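Check my protein:
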Amino acid sequence: MAIVVDGLTKAYGPKTVVDDLSFEVVPGKVTGFLGPNGAGKSTTMRLMLDLDRPDAGRVTVDGQRFRDIQYPARAVGTLLEAQAVHPKRTARNHLRMLAACSRVPDSRVDEVMEVTGITPAANKTVGAFSLGMRQRLGLASALLGDPIYMMLDEPANGLDPEGMRWIRKYLRGLANEGRAVFVSSHLLAELSLFVDYLIVIGKGRLMAMTSVDEFMAESQTAILVRTPRPDELKVELENRGATVLAEDGELRVSDTSAAAIGDLAALLGIPLHGLREKTTSLEDAFLELTADEREYRTGGTPGENAAPSGEVAP
C-alpha cells in the first residue's frame, strides 16, 4: 500500500516546474514535503490528485490512478485550498454536500466537526469564518471519508498556538493508527516536532528523501566558543585541522569536538568563558541544502552592512 509517484514531469511553456520526480508516501508515517517558494510543491500535489495532467510519469494510489477511484475522498483526504468554499453556505451544509458526493453518512459530518472543534460554528456561514476556522473546516472536509491517506498543504495556516499543537498531535495520531500523512509546510520548526520522513525538492527536482534524523545529521554541527584570547585559539585550532569563523564575539568551530577544544585550551592555558554545541535545526539543514535552489531571495536584515555612526557606507 502506498501512493507512488513515478517520473512525474510537468512544464508550462519553456519552464519545467516538476522534473522527473519519484517518491512514495507510505502508511504509518508522517512525510514532510519541503521546498523553497517556486520549487514545484503545489504543482506536484495537484498532479498527484489528477487536478493537472503531467507531461510524463504517473501517480498511483494503491495501484490505481486517483481519477479511477470511485469514491476518492474515502481513499485520500485532501486540504489544498481552505478558502475554496462558498461563503454563503454553512459549515454543516458544506460538509453534508461533500458527504453525499462520497456516499458518507451524515453522522460522519457531526464526528469531524467535533474532532476539528467547529461544532459551535456549524450553522454559521463560512464567509464569517476566520482564516483559522476555515482551515479547521478544510481539515474536517479531508477527514470526512475516514481515508487511509491524507494530503495537506499548509494545514496549520492561520491556527493559533493551541490549534497548531492540536493538529500536530492529531496528525501524529493518524500515522500511529497506520494511516499515511503527506504534509507540505513552511513552518519548519513546527514540522520537525512530528514528521518522520522528508521529501525535499528544489526547482522541481528531488534533492533529498530521508528520515528527519538523517537529514539533520548531514548538516554540519558547530561548536561556539567564547574566550578573551580568540585570535590565539583560532590559529591553534586551524593548525590542527579545524574550521574556525569569528562571528558575533564568538568562534564558530567545526571539524572537531567540544572535548578536543576544551583539552586544547587547557593545554595552552587559554581561558574559556563559553563552550557549547550549536544543535542543527530542521530550518538550518533545509536552508543549507536549498541555498542554490531558491527562486526568490530576500535582502539583508536591518543593521547588516550598516556604516558606523558618522560614516558613509560604501
Observations:
- The CA atoms of residues 79 and 139 lie 6 Å apart.
- DSSP finds eleven helices and 13 strands in the chain.
- Residues 304-314 have pLDDT under 50 and may be disordered.
- The chain has two domains: 3-217, 222-289.
